[in-house]
Amino acid sequence: MRLVSRRFAMLGLSIAAVIAGIWIWVLASDPGPELATASVTVGDLEQTVLAVGRLQPKELVAVGAQVSGQVKRLHVVLGQPVKTGDLIAEVDDQPQQISMRSAQAAVSSLQAQLAARRAAQAQAELAFRRQETLLTAEATSRSDHEAARAVLETARAEVRSLAAQIEQAHTQIETARINLAYTRIVAPMDGVVVAVVTKQGQTLNSFQTTPTIVMLAKLDVMTVRAEIAEADVQKVERGQKVTFTTLGDKRERYVAQIERIEIAPTSIVNDAGSAGGSGGGSASGAPTSSRAVYYNAVFDVPNPKGQLRPSMTAQVSVLISHVRQALLVPTAALGERDMHEAYTVRVVDRRGRVSARSVRIGVRTNATAQVLSGLQSGDHVLIGEALPAPVPASSGLLGGF
């Protein structure tokens, strides 16, 4: 029994020695981690700023009514093209018709009164002339002469007063005529009906605000308002080339130029309101919100085919800089930057030896950087080390014990 146990022990030691030898051989033959390298190439490089924008018509007009009343008839539908002067809607004009007739009747009444006063003025002029003749011949008293003059002056004043009232009444007629014309709402420009706000039969009240009936837009030119992040807005300038696509057709690329960059974000209105309220802002008036800040870059783009529509989302790319036939290196190869704005890059020669070089960089993106000095085309730079291959587990061999 003791002999059998000794044999098993010797067998176990032999197997363990074999496993240890295999393990030592694996460790001795492992060349270490492989180096991940990339070549320095020659090509073009573009530095861009990405943004999201919203399409709106360059000219958008809210066509409203300046009179109150019921919309008797609506002459347009959504999407209908119209020309300047085309009839859009009609509002009940009975109150305006009554005002027109009343103003005209007032003018007629005043004109009749004026005719009577002019006749009285003519009679007063004749009486005054007789008094002047009699006074010259000393056939009348001076008091009668002065009374005749007073009657004449009164008649002349009444004529002038009635003439002024008639002129004022004519302005009332013009006002009534304008209000009557307001009951026919016409298109102020060529365009397309992009929204119908008021329905036929609806009652309008223009005493507080001007009610909008339809929204009219020119769609031949669209305006894009692209939101530029605070970190990128100082890179964007007027005149820079911009391209964008829409979510519906990413193959069609539209090209334009930035026309202006708004000086403040649209959120400044809300921030000012918050700062003005109690506890809404800091003591200096600056907003305390930590939300992201965006500035609008505005540009126009022709839309001759009408493919671009209001409120579409535009995926915008602003071209900041562009270099041609430049030395390019992966951004992942760049190491620390020193005080002279140079980067450390590890270069691998043909024998696999690694050496550090100081490299100056120009245009840079998240993936690629332009090399100004320090490298040549064809150089291999170290961008990382490959992970070592996993060693097979030995538990299968030892598990038999």
TrEMBL record:
Residues 60-215 form the Multidrug resistance protein MdtA-like barrel-sandwich hybrid domain. GO terms for biological process: xenobiotic detoxification by transmembrane export across the plasma membrane. Residues 108-183 form the Multidrug resistance protein MdtA-like alpha-helical hairpin domain. It comes from the Bacteria. Residues 145-179 form a coiled coil. GO terms for molecular function: efflux transmembrane transporter activity. It is found in: Cell envelope. Keywords: Coiled coil, Transport. SUPFAM superfamilies: HlyD-like secretion proteins (SSF111369). One of its GO terms (cellular component) is macrolide transmembrane transporter complex. The keyword Transport applies. Residues 325-385 form the Multidrug resistance protein MdtA-like C-terminal permuted SH3 domain. Belongs to the membrane fusion protein (MFP) (TC 8.A.1) family. This is Efflux RND transporter periplasmic adaptor subunit. It comes from Variovorax gossypii.
